[in-house]
Amino acid sequence: MVSELQLSPSWLSCTHMNKHHHLLLRGASSLTVSLCKRSGPTHPPPARPLFPSSGAGGTTTAAAIVSNFFSRHHHSTLTSPHHHLPKTARMSTTTPSPVDLIEQSKRLAAFQSVTAHLVPFPSRTRIGIGSGSTVIYVVEAITALVPPTTLSTMTFYPTGAQSEQLIESAGLNLQYINKLPPGTLLDVCFDGADEVDPNLNLIKGGGACLWQEKIVATSSKKFVCVADFRKMSPALGTMWKKGIPIEVLPLAANRVLGELERMGSLGPKVRPGLPGKAGAVVTDNGMWIVDAPFRPLRVEGTSDKEKGEWQVDELADALIKIPGVAEIGLFYGKNGNQAGEGGAQKPVEAYFGMEDGSVKVLSA
Amino acid sequence: MVSELQLSPSWLSCTHMNKHHHLLLRGASSLTVSLCKRSGPTHPPPARPLFPSSGAGGTTTAAAIVSNFFSRHHHSTLTSPHHHLPKTARMSTTTPSPVDLIEQSKRLAAFQSVTAHLVPFPSRTRIGIGSGSTVIYVVEAITALVPPTTLSTMTFYPTGAQSEQLIESAGLNLQYINKLPPGTLLDVCFDGADEVDPNLNLIKGGGACLWQEKIVATSSKKFVCVADFRKMSPALGTMWKKGIPIEVLPLAANRVLGELERMGSLGPKVRPGLPGKAGAVVTDNGMWIVDAPFRPLRVEGTSDKEKGEWQVDELADALIKIPGVAEIGLFYGKNGNQAGEGGAQKPVEAYFGMEDGSVKVLSA
Amino acid sequence: MVSELQLSPSWLSCTHMNKHHHLLLRGASSLTVSLCKRSGPTHPPPARPLFPSSGAGGTTTAAAIVSNFFSRHHHSTLTSPHHHLPKTARMSTTTPSPVDLIEQSKRLAAFQSVTAHLVPFPSRTRIGIGSGSTVIYVVEAITALVPPTTLSTMTFYPTGAQSEQLIESAGLNLQYINKLPPGTLLDVCFDGADEVDPNLNLIKGGGACLWQEKIVATSSKKFVCVADFRKMSPALGTMWKKGIPIEVLPLAANRVLGELERMGSLGPKVRPGLPGKAGAVVTDNGMWIVDAPFRPLRVEGTSDKEKGEWQVDELADALIKIPGVAEIGLFYGKNGNQAGEGGAQKPVEAYFGMEDGSVKVLSA
Amino acid sequence: MVSELQLSPSWLSCTHMNKHHHLLLRGASSLTVSLCKRSGPTHPPPARPLFPSSGAGGTTTAAAIVSNFFSRHHHSTLTSPHHHLPKTARMSTTTPSPVDLIEQSKRLAAFQSVTAHLVPFPSRTRIGIGSGSTVIYVVEAITALVPPTTLSTMTFYPTGAQSEQLIESAGLNLQYINKLPPGTLLDVCFDGADEVDPNLNLIKGGGACLWQEKIVATSSKKFVCVADFRKMSPALGTMWKKGIPIEVLPLAANRVLGELERMGSLGPKVRPGLPGKAGAVVTDNGMWIVDAPFRPLRVEGTSDKEKGEWQVDELADALIKIPGVAEIGLFYGKNGNQAGEGGAQKPVEAYFGMEDGSVKVLSA
């Protein structure tokens, strides 16, 4: 189900700019961009090169691609070609550290996701912006890639205080999800995740903002996930071991804990607020968070609930119906491609910045 | 499915006190107690007569039965046989007004429900107490019927501020549902409803306390509904026309309204707080209430969602999964008899005070 | 302290448009505009007539003035000179009903307050918008009087859900008070009141929004009150008899009630939420409202706390310090003219629509 | 103002048991119990020795005193004289570690405070229980010292979730402060502090529970502070450098930050919720916490507000009146001895467990 493709930057430079790109990406259910040596000639980009080739042959790092892009796009001079780039992403003649590589790949992932899902930048687009370290690069990408006159017509909907600050400090038009008129959808939502399985089921809620995140994601025509390689997982519960975050009414916490144990959760707990707050974390909605660890959740096939082994969809269905549960950190079911009228929880695609500087894409 | 039985007071006096009573009531899926003329001899009650016959033949009103009970139970004197009864329920030589009759029947319904579901008054019972005008009589009944030493071992769990006051002013042991240890259940919960259909599906939430009410009800081994005749309905949405109360996260209100309209709700609205509060009602949980009218909900058979015609269970399932919905005012699915481990939303029985002074019982 | 001036419309037409107007109004501590017969010639308005004279001699009603204004300002045709005016304010050849008169005077009060405090309509003005039936006319006045290009640079800060809707439905730029940068002030805030005493002390909070209202008012360089004649009072507690609204932490309600009684409050009570909600009103901040009636509050002179007779400032000072009190509905102390750095609670001026169609102005 | 007394255990054994003790302690504004060598004969305790002398002459550590007490009180056998003591407090033949010494002194402080303020253990006492590591020993002391039949008549009021658990796990009668009838006071409240100055002004709120803590403290006839030596300070802001915790309405956070900076606060900040929650800490009351550092607060004498130098009372008075501030973490003004009707914020006494195993008492 997951395949890997080695793509040269020259491919990126030409295909990411046209509409075939989308189909191409859809053809591969998983795509690794490893930015290997380019051999062929540089195709002249039709309008504006998003990921142009480097000037000469040789291995091109993600940073180089990104910085090359910026040097053209912004017409910056030789003396300060990357003045606005964060340190980790600046082109360097020395070997990048592993941390640099990861940051570069996360950034590349963000640029790629924006390219794939916002081109050709229609005006009046409504965009959900989530939180997480990779989403920061999504906002950077949007600011860099979208023409200013178009950008000023776009509106950005945060999933919480963190993304609200992100939107504001980037000078973008902020709007709140409660202002989205009934029956209307955001065009796309970019958000991170705490864990992603091969079927694009997610765990979210490490930052206790899952309720608003799910509302924004499911208010979008499509949801695009951006993250780093540590969030890729064969089965939910493998990498994120703290448990599925569940937002609960405080007076029902005990009751929910009892239900969870009966369902096979291994030591569910109310999340503590320390060091900032004694007692439980209180969410922005006045609720508590229960973290409910389960055995790794099966993507498909049979489950054995007696042993506490659940399929994602089954578990999600059972959890959301427990009285006292306000919302759950499992994003499951349909994605935006399948659900015509919105309301889809799963992303249509997930972009991961990899350890080696490459980007891996998981598509529905 | 619904049958009516005419029962004489003498039947009440002997059968309500033994364990067969329960089976008898279960045998009838619906029971009307119309307090007709008694013809046979009075069976001596085995231990303590709850609803004894009147001394002589003739029509016995609900008030007479209740007051007779009290006169024996409390050993009250002739001079003040009903000193602690509320005005509307006092025996009168004049014809009772319609209002008196209804109050008498509600009270009788409460006494009957307590008799049926608390006898033989085991100690350490944990009881949920809801709200509504009939529940007031439930508390009165418990106080009157349960021996004081047993009563002092019982604990009472309110569904909101109103029932909390009720419990406290009756001098009963108050405890909060959040203190119920995980995995433990209340023994029984008595609560009202805004509408009851023949399958014992309920609409609740007219008082904006539905979330806590559902938590208490589903934390009980069985849930007993007490109400007056105005709440009986052939199909939910027939009598209670304001709509299904839905507790929503304020920032998702618009989004939920849009979903509801798409599902066929006829003019769903955020409930206003006036006169006490400008803007929306805020619940005790910091949420808003959306009242979503639907066409009368089908109990069984086919539905036609395209026309906005829903079955109760289908609709409830769809509503609870809308992101932004915290809880819904539909009580549906299993009842305590069916759901071994609790978590049942539907009552096992509903007692209605009727317009003519009688009590109607609807059993699962 | 309160004097009344009879002013002709011609005075209004010329003086309201220049900067002297402000000083003139300040000279009179109370101003009644009774719109008597104009005798002199119409002074040609320097730029745009806000309250022009009627075409011929004779008594000019508030409605006539307003409608004349609109007919010029909007260049409307003969066929539909007042197409956008609410019904009650439309010019009529028949005698206006008392209700019409009041609505006309409230509207006139709103137009006058906007004229006095927004002219010459500087761009980038930040304006607080409160709630109440007169504030509706303030928004209408702003929309009507401010040139569109200037209006698009102005930002409007609501005090609650009601004024938020008002701002949005008028198509004005909405912003939230939490977005006002630290150290910045709104230029002016227009809000209603439940009662106004001669020293411009206010009672607010009938709509349970007092906390946000006080934050917006005290975030403004000056606060302008608009209301109708029923809110004018010789002493707070004379007209508004329900008590001073106090926003309290629910778990401290009993404690605050006890303190209030000790201080002489006559039957303070937690405000009930019915019919929309059983139990207490919950504010948008998750608090409860206690309504605390006191004997009419003295504006100055001696007080006798033992008898429960308080001066406004003394009482406010004592109330705000009760632990458990979040905010109080008394607006007292300094006004924007006195408090250079903002933080003033009292209005600099209050405009009242009077029963006879006139406007009364109370100035600090 | 602060004097130190060297007291022998024998003094403790006899004076702590009678009523003169209280006066003696009041005579010293500060009392250090350093547990030196006892020289005189052991006075036979009149009823029950709380802090009896050790069996032989020689230096007596706090641990020895406490453990001796327990060995008598509980009639424990030789084989297990200290079976229920936590590890750190067990008598040891080896030299106690510094950590042991501090724990021992905190425990001794707790026992001393309970002895001083609860003896002769009147029944039906209502006791506030706060949080903090020393309060744990207060609950232990109460459980150990109060006769069970009396203990069962006492009621305990927590200041938050932490102390609620403490009360429950000790099997004490829990009650909530909102259930205290209007006009009634708790008899005494034991709580910790983040910093204590020589005049017994406090900073509290490190755990974000300051609002409830202040309500419980000021609902008590007297408030007794228990803490360790790290909380003793010559001036508030010297030891606790994170700033005065201030509970604010989220939408007013910016506005409050601006006011605080204007008042001279050095970098006030909204407290972050990480790692459990992205964005701000949300309190149990739905508020945010602003931590506002000020220069060390003067206890008395002149202040220079222009330089940001404040007296405690002046600053507290200014802070509580900022609109948007719900409550402040300064406990100041009167103490229970001065304030006849309660409502006092300052403790009447503070007990500190010292580094050397001794207890220091600071009295009003």
Automatic annotation (TrEMBL), chains A, B, C, D:
<dbReference type="InterPro" id="IPR004788">
    <property type="entry name" value="Ribose5P_isomerase_type_A"/>
</dbReference>
<comment type="similarity">
    <text>Belongs to the ribose 5-phosphate isomerase family.</text>
</comment>
<dbReference type="GO" id="GO:0004751">
    <property type="term" value="F:ribose-5-phosphate isomerase activity"/>
</dbReference>
<protein>
    <recommendedName>
        <fullName>Ribose-5-phosphate isomerase</fullName>
        <ecNumber>5.3.1.6</ecNumber>
    </recommendedName>
</protein>
<keyword id="KW-0413">Isomerase</keyword>
<dbReference type="InterPro" id="IPR037171">
    <property type="entry name" value="NagB/RpiA_transferase-like"/>
</dbReference>
<comment type="pathway">
    <text>Carbohydrate degradation; pentose phosphate pathway; D-ribose 5-phosphate from D-ribulose 5-phosphate (non-oxidative stage): step 1/1.</text>
</comment>
<feature type="region of interest" description="Disordered">
    <location>
        <begin position="75"/>
        <end position="95"/>
    </location>
</feature>
<feature type="compositionally biased region" description="Basic residues">
    <location>
        <begin position="75"/>
        <end position="87"/>
    </location>
</feature>
<dbReference type="Pfam" id="PF06026">
    <property type="entry name" value="Rib_5-P_isom_A"/>
</dbReference>
